[in-house]
Amino acid sequence: xxxxxxxxxxxxxxxxxxxxxxxxxxxxxxxxxxxxxxxxxxxxxxxxxxxxxxxxxxxxxxxxxxxxxxxxxxxxxxxxxxxxxxxxxxxxxxxxxxxxxxxxxxxxxxxxxxxxxxxxxxxxxxxxxxxxxxxxxxxxxxxxxxxxxxxxxxxxxxxxxxxxxxxxxxxxxxxxxxxxxxxxxxxxxxxxxxxxxxxxxxxxxxxxxxxxxxxxxxxxxxxxxxxxxxxxxxxxxxxxxxxxxxxxxx
Length: 250
Ligand code: IPE
Ligand code: IPE
Ligand code: MG
Description:
This protein is α/β, with parallel strands linked by helices. The chain contains seven helices and eight strands; from the N terminus they run βααβαβαβααββαββ. Helix 4 (114-124) links the parallel strand 3 and strand 4. Helix 2 (32-52) packs parallel to helix 3. The relative contact order is 0.18.
């Protein structure tokens, strides 16, 4: 595994709430969609930087289930950008050995987008480099409710008993099955909330909030956020021994 300049291992999984595209555009007297276009450039830049830093999993929040409440034109612009990103960047991502996974609700998505999502995952399924997780039409509460429904259906069919339901089974019903929980979640633009992102998976993640708007975010900002994370003490409910390692208190 790669180490950074400080000699620390990079976090295994970084998740980013990419926020501030609209404000970036408005500050320049531009329409909001221009901010979204610049936001795609930031995605390319930051994903590349994350690969160079040896980050194994990068999750990007690109459209929430609540974003449907935006004006219709903005929603279709965001959908077009995802389509364009997949069409233009999929071959490069594949060449760079990136595995693409798309999480979120697929029902109700326009029919021209679904085959692209399926193709992106299929083409890159066997890649062994970075895993790029795109949260699209994603909502944490919806994901948890869907998992509960699936488990209830299994119980009704008699495939499992109520005693079989534990965290492991639950995790396997989430869109993120098989993906380690994020070590750190970064939100840009100065907002300090989760906005329904990975509610289950972020239980013990570190949070780094940065003021920079997403279209301005770059590899240096990612490094800064990662080094802030590396200065944190993760205790998972335990205590830290004098040597700095996590202990059970016994
Ligand atoms: C993030 O930027 C992109 C999406 C949520 C899709 P915003 O569009 O939320 O930008 P602000 O928060 O209005 O500045
Ligand atoms: C969160 O940003 C969703 C994404 C980044 C895709 P929003 O801009 O939609 O969140 P709120 O509305 O400010 O909470
Ligand atoms: Mg926003």
